[in-house]
Design goal:
By secondary structure, this protein is mostly helical. The chain has a domain at about 85-185 and about 290-385. The protein has helices at about 1-25, 25-30, 35-45, 55-75, 85-110, 120-130, 135-145, 150-170, 175-180, 190-200, 210-235, 240-260, 260-265, 270-285, 290-295, 300-325, 325-340, 345-350, 355-385.
């Protein structure tokens, strides 16, 4: 019991220390707390310091942290202007969906002879996870009755390859895309000024924290706990295969609705607290990737996943260029589909553009909804074409 508590404290304290260090050092700040947490998790998870029992701790924290973080992030947002961006978001989402599908098909054509009898099932799982998220990956794998060894190979390869890509998304890729795609533009002068005011407060550090902020922030955390409990309770009322999706959808919806209440929206530091919890999630999930075991057991699957993601990234960028989708909308939409909605606020923080969070979140939620259908349909399609 004491060991469990100590490891939980470690996973909670490490991101807090990294946040503090970034607030004090310009170089670390330029790298970004999320990048450091991700890199730290990959290193710590592969140098042999974690006991085998830590897996249950990691799974539990992953299950709890994101549902608590999402409402806190939503509380601080003024979503009234989002509807005017729906058309642009729809274009970017369509481009991302096409890119993932075409990229998956080409990658499967290349690697099909080397993937074995269950290659078509792997392809369906990857369509599901890169359209929706991990709940879709698990649901499709169970539905297609893939072997446990191949399921682990696909999931672990996804964690490794997408983790490396995510580090690039948080560092160099935004700079590259800004040279290729149009710049994000405010729709009106009023929205532009509002967004600038939001960006001024879009600060991940707890600067200027006062005693009077503590009780309102504690109340906001309590409300987030209540929303999490409602979403978790609702998940028991639906079939197991969609329980996670239902929980996240309900938690997201309640968090959004709460943001329309001025008294909740004006609570200071809710975004900072939600951002901190996302850092905890980044550290924990990246610490679960066993790079050595992965390289030893699933090199073909790693190459398959890497090829798929590279193709999807390139195709999506070309489509966004043709459809004149701006770089920020493009990036959060791609993040939502490849990584799932919880990662969108992290990328929005790197972009320093709070207004695109809702665009990415809704694109990701749409992906969650269609992910199972897309993945299973794609799996049976490639099986019928390639035998």
């Amino acid at each position: 019991m004491l060991t469990t508590i100590l490891w939980v404290v470690f996973f909670l304290a490490c991101p807090a220390f990294i946040l503090w260090a970034c607030s004090k050092n310009k170089f670390l700040d330029s790298v970004g707390a999320i990048v450091i947490c991700y890199a730290a998790g990959l290193i710590l998870g592969n140098i042999g310091i974690f006991p085998e029992s830590i897996v249950s701790i990691q799974d539990t924290m992953n299950m709890l942290v994101i549902p608590l973080a999402l409402p806190l992030i939503f509380f601080s947002m003024d979503l009234r202007g989002w509807g005017k961006q729906a058309g642009l978001a729809a274009k970017s989402f369509t481009g991302a969906l096409i890119a993932v599908t075409v990229g998956s098909f080409i990658a499967f054509m290349i690697f099909e002879p080397h993937l074995g009898m269950e290659g078509w099932k792997m392809a369906g799982m990857l369509i599901g996870v890169y359209t929706g998220g991990t709940p879709n990956l698990a649901a499709i794998g169970n539905g297609l009755e893939i072997s446990s060894s191949n399921y682990i190979a696909v999931h672990a390869s996804d964690v490794l390859v997408s983790g490396i890509l995510f580090l690039l998304i948080l560092s160099v890729i935004p700079r590259i895309l800004k040279r290729i795609l149009p710049k994000y533009q405010q729709l009106t002068d009023l929205e532009h000024q509002q967004n600038i005011r939001q960006m001024d407060g879009f600060e991940p550090y707890f600067k200027g924290f006062q005693k009077k902020d503590f009780l309102p922030l504690l109340a906001a955390f309590g409300l987030s706990l209540l929303i999490f409990a409602i979403g978790g309770g609702a998940s028991f009322l639906v079939p197991e295969g969609i329980s996670s999706v239902v929980a996240i959808l309900l938690i997201t919806t309640l968090g959004i609705l709460a943001s329309f209440v001025p008294r909740i929206r004006n609570i200071r530091m809710t975004f900072q607290l939600g951002h901190y919890l996302l850092l905890v999630f980044a550290l924990v999930v990246s610490s679960m990737a066993n790079i050595k075991k992965l390289i030893d057991t699933a090199p073909v699957v790693i190459l398959f996943v890497a090829t798929l993601l590279i193709l999807a990234f390139v195709i999506h960028t070309i489509l966004s260029k043709l459809m004149k989708v701006d770089s920020d909308t493009h990036l959060v939409t791609m993040t939502a589909l490849i990584y799932s909605p919880p990662f969108v606020p992290v990328v929005a923080a790197v972009l320093r553009n709070k207004q695109v969070i809702m665009t990415g979140m809704l694109a990701g939620i749409a992906g969650w909804i269609i992910g199972n259908y897309a993945g299973i349909g794609f799996a049976y399609l490639v099986r019928s074409l390639f035998g």
